Amino acid sequence: MCELLFxxxxxxxxxxxxxxxxxxxxxxxxxxxxxxEYFLTLFCKGCFDLHVLGTxxxxxxxxxxxxxxxxxxxxxxxxxxxDQDNWRNTPVSIAVTxxxxxxxxTIINTLRGLNPRQSGAAPVGVxxxxxxxxxxxxxxxxxxxxxxxxxxxxxxxxxxxxxRAINFSTYDFFFIVTSDxxxxxxxxxxxxxxxLGKALYFIRSKLDADIANDRVxxxxxxxEDAVINQIRENCRVNMQGQNIAGRLFVLSGRRQFESxxxxxxxxxxxxxxxxxxxxxxxxxxxxxxxxxxxxxxxKELKKRVLKVATLSAGLSAIPVPGLxxxxxxxxxxxxxxxxxxxxxxDQESLDELHARYSVTLDQTGEIFLKYLLPRTLxxxxxxxxxxxxxxxxxxxxxxxVAKMIPVLxxxxxxxxxETTRLALNSVLVQLRxxxxxxxxxxxxxxxxxxxx
Length: 452
What we know:
The chain is an alpha/beta fold. The protein is built from 18 helices and eight strands. The strands form two sheets. A six-stranded mixed sheet has the order 4-5-3-6-7-8, with helices on both faces. Strands 1-2 form a two-stranded antiparallel ribbon. Helix 1 (25-45) runs parallel beside helix 13 (323-342) and helix 3 (68-81) packs antiparallel against helix 12 (305-316). The longest helix is centred in the last third of the chain and has 42 residues, at 409-450. The chain is globular.
């Protein structure tokens, strides 16, 4: 009897096949060839988001004994290995509050990877655009949510009803944003937030406008550092006068400046402050806007490698010659696609870099080539994965031979595990380093475009 269960998510529906038969050699060869052709076609096209669980029990009449033990173990391994994407289910909610025109909506849009005119972006303006708490989920990660809150101390939201009106318990932490001075109402809100055990971060926004204005007003002796230092000192005196204690981040909320001034430090500080489960999720939710954040992402992604390799090993235990290669291609394409998105090396991110900052294809292509990657990696990913397997899977032939002899099934699994582990660890380092170079290219292009 042979029972095959293949579960997939993504572009394909669930495929559930049960075959009850006493397998003859001819039938086994037919089944093997059909499966290999099916999976290889799908994986090499990159259209199969792989999550496979299954059992295969071959007739004692054909093999002489049952493979039930190995496949029960395989089911457990695959189930554990499949949890590497559970971080997407972790809720992280940020409340952003401040007076009208302080730059709240701009910060929200940037953290969601959106420009003000894109569909779904929070409306921006110098007048009050927030009359009630408004929910803005990240377009890719729906459990990462930013909330635009109305400011406290208005006729509609007086202090005595504010916390209840905004559903205070909904949020994990708060941003209190100003573009000039923090107020007595900000001081009151900060005390209330702390008394209830919530974290908060003070943000002095619109730094880009202050620097641009100083360049005009002090053309002969303009200094960006002097402007920033003066703003920090003014905020320190202001917060001290309002009896406000807390961490201050001086930045611009615009996407052009997401890697400048205190914006990167804000994100890495949040990562350090969050509990472990949310820390893992927020690191992958947020953008790779600094070398420090890229390193944090690298460490989180590296933790996935053993789980993915375990999944590969479990699937390679299926005694179908040729299926191991197809499975490894599919797993690597799927995982490396995640790496490209996290490091902002996917095609969408590169297209934006080319269009927004006038960076050329040659410039980005040179970075990929520097790290021995294809110039257009996102478009050549299946072929690149096959080259990785050719580089690291010196035992691929031995793996397929092992499948012809049932007693060697654990050997096939071990070869697949090590091949996947080596390939992912290698490409992860390459993509991390390429991401850092691409970040520097983005920052320099932004400086040229904005003039500072």
